[in-house]
């Protein structure tokens, strides 16, 4: 096996111990004579996994029964619809803060199909180089909720302190930075995240919501699209993506064994610093997209002086065993995603490569 | 590894070659130095898998570009909502034929939340022992569609010839018998199926629909819930359950290598016969739930004279290496699911066990 450093934006690198365990027991889960892939979601074994995974998320976030954790399907994209379907009644408005041209805008556009949504802040005119400052927000007096995207994979920005929304309910798409740093989840009414960046494989969506919200969801929404349906059934209303939840649970176990969110937060800070330092010492050769105060610890995005050089960079990096560095197809450039399972060594290798590439081409 | 025969109703037994390949390449997909679980859904490798899987489903069903095959999330349960959201306009009615108390009834109830749905046939009063006969159907003159459930896992019944719906559009939930026998898919406007019984793991939903329908879907539906969205993006509008589609593709490869649907249809017929024969030669000890003309080749359901005996049966069968035989929690009794990947040997082992259990307890 050729070793590579995988900088994919998601699906992304997974912790080696989780993958190794999944492989070791893929044909025979705990001596049951069958794969976890072949087991009923109603089996005691799977119910244990499901319960463990919920407990682990709550433990990592320090949450008690005031919150529920659900494992759903459909990714953040389905949450873009489920949130307003459940919590945006016809007589209310929802505030959306836009921090990137794809995910937060999509969330806003989807909400507009369902009810009244308005833009309560946006850095679009600055090409999404940063998240808005508090004084730039224009919140409704009494919105159904305020929606933010905590980390923006495409532009490489991240909220480093949460907006103050007063008593308004804060909802966040945390697909690309959940469980990557300490989080005061109690500030949020609802958090959702696709698992495929920091927590597991694609095909599982984690939803964390305040238990008190469950009775407030709209009753005319299709049963399968109500959070209350899934909460009542412990995420087993319909057949869950069992292998995805199983692997999520292994990754959560790895996060706990690694020291939890405080430790991962420090590691992720140190990892990102290594790559940002390479940008900052390059003169103007590597040009970070994000303003320093909004720099994402998860996705480092930068341009080179010419597109041809960017192609060469990606090609040579790939040859050197660093893959997944091409920027999002909508913006181009370079993007290095440094999720939980990316090692410090991978970041150091990338920084060294950047230095060397600059030396040869700068 | 203890060998067991896995009669789970779904998630269910998978073809050993597919699982073995998944295990062998789990840490390093085709020498790429990373797991398929870690690869971008926009990578050339995954796009190849995605394209291959669509082509295989179409080839197995003999379909050309008149149909599209989509790989979605959310299972049949989400399709219960998506079908009427897309294809049941406010001025039309949809006909539902009820053949079981859980899946077809749930599909009907979900449609009623979205538009006007009516029951155009039901065998509920006969405790769903069979599917309706043609003369028992009461179809609307011009419904948006007629919905059926092709195989009923809980009651163990199956449609062996399709209802004649004239020019009306037929929609089928084929979650539990798709790709288990030859199918004239052109009779259907739309077919949907969770993958976790005959095709792969849970977490992937296969939708096969007439291409001409794509322009007819409602435009007010959330983007993520429109079939047109997914068709336009080749099932890559949002991050797909990549591992699920990968494993689905391996199972489809196995189906093709096994001789396709004609061969699987014969095997499944022979397998079910072995178990039904054990019921039929038992006097009245094993009492099949389904009427013989509606017997499912996928799920053989039967009762024993007493509940205590049923518990003993499940316990002794489990000890003998035959697992997953408990009936659905809503009806009790015994259920043996004999999906594509269940071997004839497994069915013979079960039949022998049934004979012996009868000898000792009859």
Short structural summary:
Chain A is α/β, with parallel strands linked by helices. Chain A is 35% helix and 16% strand. Chain A contains 9 helices and 14 strands.
Task: Kindly describe this structure.
The structure is a homodimer of 362-residue chains. The mean pLDDT of chain A is 96. Chain A starts with a strand and ends with a helix. Chain A has helices at 16-24, 44-61, 75-87, 103-114, 227-232, 242-257, 260-280, 307-319, 344-361, and strands spanning 5-6, 67-72, 93-98, 116-122, 146-149, 151-152, 157-158, 170-173, 190-194, 205-210, 287-288, 299-303, 322-323, 334-337. In chain A, a hairpin with a 4-residue loop joins strand 6 (151-152) and strand 7 (157-158). In chain A, 35% of the residues lie in helices and 16% in strands.
Features of this protein?
homodimer; 362 residues; 7-stranded mixed beta sheet; 14 strands
The number of E-state strands of chain A comes to 14
Proportion of helical residues of chain A: 25-40%
- N-C termini distance of chain A: 33 Å
Q: What quaternary form is this?
A: homodimer
